[in-house]
Predict the structure.
Amino acid sequence: MTAAPAPVPLSGALLQDDPTRVYREMRREHGPVVPVLLDGDVPAWLVLGYRELHQVTGDPVLFSRDSELWSQWDTIPDDWPLLPMIGRKQASILYTVGERHRERATMLGNALEAVDAFELRRYAEKFADELIDGICPRGRADIVGEYAMLLPVRVLARLYGFTDDEGPALVTALNDMIDGRERALAGQTHLFTSMTRLVADRTEAPADDVVSRMLADPSGFTGDEIVQDLMVMMAAGHQPTADWIGNSLRLMLTDGRFAASLFGGRNSVAEAMNEVLWEDAPTQNVAGRWASRDTHLGGRHVHAGDLLLLGLQGANSDPQVRTDGSALTGGNSAHFSFGHGEHRCPFPAQEIAEVIARTAIEVVLDRLPDIDLAVPADSLTRRPSPWLRGLTELPVTFTPTPALGGTLA
């Protein structure tokens, strides 16, 4: 009898260079549901099949978001670096189930939907211009580290109610938390402290912002619950959007199909952004779901209490649904990059992310029209994270231009 293939250690280094090849090899060796090991040899399943992922995300009873179901909690140390990504006994919307989750999603969606579209665009344009002002006279920049990684959190902080000078520390905390390494818990602590202070301030003095609208919702959510939701919203809204900007600009700078966009065209900006969601999704993998009872999935026997990781990028590239290569990318939004089912990213949040990302790209093309890569395309590297896929840097050159000197009142 042939021995079953060993579980795959799911580390950032594994997926850093060529995740498409890795997912293909995983699928060939293990099928659509792959046994993996997280940090500390913690077992889990990685769901790579499009149909299987649709099944998992579409059945919130069998595949629950309640992390208390996990059978491995007795083996998880208090300083496990992935705790911020998986969480236990958290009051956030991520781990709420049933009717209370639906009420909570409605509260959050209403608070985001009330964001004025013109104000959102104005914030994004002004902050983008301020960031470009800081680099345009030099003729050279890291457009990821000096621009994409700074813009979404500045816009979101303004929408939520933070002051502009709190943005840089929030960026650092979020990146530390999401990368899931030694600074993860410290990043989570800073984010929690910042959100707690903001909720307390808005409880005393409401304003026209997202936090005040959440506090005013009649569903009766506590301040602690709103703090947890704000942490989720900031993490989910900032880093994936920053990577969406960076990955889209990388595609436009390295793929001849999008060259016209670099000289004033705009039609292919949306096409590039959509292609990234299919082929180079900012959120590659998500933790997770927990089986509420023994079941079978993709030919695997899944035990009650098992953790299932959502392989969003793996499902997007599933050959069972991508039989003709890239045919699904052109305007097709059936990808998993925003999730699926009850716990998918709320539509107002998706719209906010898209406005920020598209505005960011268009401002770059307007302000730096002859932008070009400063290094060979094959030398670009990715951050070592199994969860999010973003560039470590994107060095570019352009003709130096004077700053506009605009400010946001």
In short: The two ends are 71 Å apart (CA to CA). The longest helix spans residues 223-254. The mean pLDDT is 86.
